[in-house]
């Protein structure tokens, strides 16, 4: 509901600990990046001492303007004045962060109702923690009965909770889940697609979202350049580092794995924190190499490996393992670029067909 005379007002409500303040920044970032909006972030939570500073810091890191407020001011006045400020300064969207409580109480609802009456928001969105399960459903019901929600933002969907609460909330409130938080990074907020979430809940993955994330990170030109390097056997550790960083920008290992069919169950056996640490360790090893070493890993002899291990805080064995894995990966990439799957099968010595029930006839 943003196609109104500017500014459109979005009010975010919810309990403490649901990720409301961070979601204000994430939503502002998403609206600017994907919808070409010019959002103003408004800290109207004067009760949690760090809330105002937190939003200012987040806004600064994203280069989004944050309305100047402090704990001595009335939240209703902050919201009203911020909307006027946004209108006068050319902001077409104003996103207001409100106070939360440990539980729903009359005082909280009274203040939120006053803010709604003062600014007439186009959207009143509940920020709810998906990890709290049934409790999140009860919270949604309480806020909707008091304020008349227009939608829900479900946070922490990259964790073990796969979104069952989402289905219950939709059923109880009749209000759509509009966005989902899928990680701690400030770009880890996405438009909610119910059919894709149903697929994730069933463990069938979400390939469409994975493709969308990849498209956002890789240009056609970069992809073609990478293909040329692979075909000419020029793929270097610098290129590998770039690909590694691209994957990390796309989201956590857990959230990415949940989008790949069949990987969800496999990831239950993997420690996500350990996987993230492994990625950081590999990056540290590569960054401890010289430009020449990253461009031509064949020159990395014993003394160089010892220096790299010392510089990256790892062992020589870990450096050796990375170089061996990189060499094997280059072989696989070469085979795939030359002969497709057939080339890969020949490299595997015909083992793959028999494993799939093929082999000699």
UniProtKB/TrEMBL annotation:
Residues 6-143 form the AAA+ ATPase domain. Residues 7-203 form the SRP54-type proteins GTP-binding domain. It comes from the Bacteria. GO terms for biological process: SRP-dependent cotranslational protein targeting to membrane. InterPro entries: AAA+_ATPase, P-loop_NTPase, Signal_recog_part_SRP54_M_sf, Signal_recog_particle_SRP54_M, SRP54, SRP54_GTPase_dom. Keywords: GTP-binding, Nucleotide-binding. One of its GO terms (molecular function) is 7S RNA binding. GO terms for cellular component: signal recognition particle. PANTHER family: SIGNAL RECOGNITION PARTICLE 54K PROTEIN SRP54, SIGNAL RECOGNITION PARTICLE SUBUNIT SRP54. This is Signal recognition particle protein. It comes from SAR324 cluster bacterium.
